[in-house]
Design goal:
The protein has a five-stranded mixed beta sheet, sandwiched between helices. Helix 1 runs antiparallel to helix 5 and helix 4 packs across helix 5. It has five helices and five strands. The longest helix is centred in the C-terminal third of the chain and has 75 residues. Helix content is about 60%, strand content about 15%. The chain has a single domain, classed as ATP synthase, F1 complex, gamma subunit (Pyruvate Kinase, Chain: A, domain 1, 3-Layer(aba) Sandwich). By secondary structure, the chain is α/β, with parallel strands linked by helices. Strand 4 and strand 5 form a beta hairpin.
Length: about 290
């Protein structure tokens, strides 16, 4: 009954796999709540920063910060890519990279060069294999990312934009919609995108102390950092949600496979028993 032994080995292997997927599912289910709480706690700050920058951008100011002024010609663009450090989260990273690659091809077809920095091990490994111009990366942020961990890669892109090395900066991440839905998102960071919620300009302006350049440089830097940090938290919640769903699906598929293999094993076992009985009966009749 060699076939039966092979089937039993397969059943044992699938059972061991199901134990792993169930464990990962439970771990992600326990972590997703903390990730969601962290993400929701940071959302009001990011929203208010958007509102404050929106007011500043639409004020009638004599000084125009470089981050607010669009470039007449786009020769090089930059991307800040937020991904996961670990896999086993379904197509979360794959869908994100596919959306980005489509935009990169469009830029390259127009003769536009591409620079990028990566947050997360998966993005770093993926784009390093493609041999793109990667200016920096940061990985292994943990379950509670801190802004201090992101300042380095953000500063690289902000300095590149200030020096005129890139003409547009975008943020690429997975937006957490709900547990079942995560949306691959590409948002423009710099220059500040136009807002439809407010008129083009106002007749008033702010009073800056000590001067507009110093204040706006600080505020706009904090603005970009807050958006990147919020994107990192959104991506973290999306990672746990996607992994929980993927591992539940894997566990269900393993259970179904075990049932199918058990049925095949029982049929093989019954066939072997029937054959043995037939051989015994045939031997007795021959005697």
């Amino acid at each position: 009954m060699a076939g039966g032994r092979e089937i039993k080995t397969k059943i044992k292997s699938v059972q061991n796999t199901r134990k792993v997927t169930r464990a990962l599912e439970m771990v992600s289910a326990s972590k997703i709540r903390k990730a969601q709480d962290l993400m929701k706690a940071s959302r009001p700050y990011a929203r208010l920063m958007r509102q404050a920058i929106g007011h500043i951008a639409h004020a009638n100011s004599e000084y125009q910060h470089p981050f607010m002024v669009g470039r007449s010609e786009i020769k090089r663009v930059g991307f800040v890519i937020v991904s996961t450090d670990r896999g086993l989260c379904g197509g979360l990273n794959t869908n994100l990279f596919r959306s980005l690659l489509t935009q990169i091809r469009e830029c390259q077809d127009k003769g536009i060069e591409v620079d990028m920095v990566c947050i997360g091990q998966k993005a770093t490994s993926f784009f390093r294999r493609l041999k793109v111009n990667m200016l920096g990366s940061v990985t292994h942020l943990g379950e509670k990312p801190q802004v201090d961990q992101l300042i380095g890669v953000i500063k690289v892109m902000l300095d590149a934009y200030t020096d005129g090395k890139i003409d547009r900066l975008s943020l690429v991440y997975n937006d957490f919609v709900n547990t079942m839905t995560q949306k691959a998102t590409i948002d423009q960071l710099l220059p500040l995108p136009p807002s439809d919620e407010m008129p083009t300009t106002h007749s008033w302006d702010y009073l800056y102390e000590p001067d507009a350049a110093t204040v706006l440089d600080h505020v706009l830097t904090r603005y970009v950092e807050s958006l990147v940090y919020q994107a990192t938290l959104e991506n973290l919640a999306s990672e746990h949600a996607a992994r929980m769903v993927a591992m539940k699906s894997a566990s269900d598929n393993a259970t179904k496979a075990i049932g199918d293999l058990t049925l095949v094993y029982n049929k093989a076992r019954q066939a072997a028993i029937t054959q043995e009985i037939s051989e015994i009966v045939s031997g007795a009749a021959a005697v």
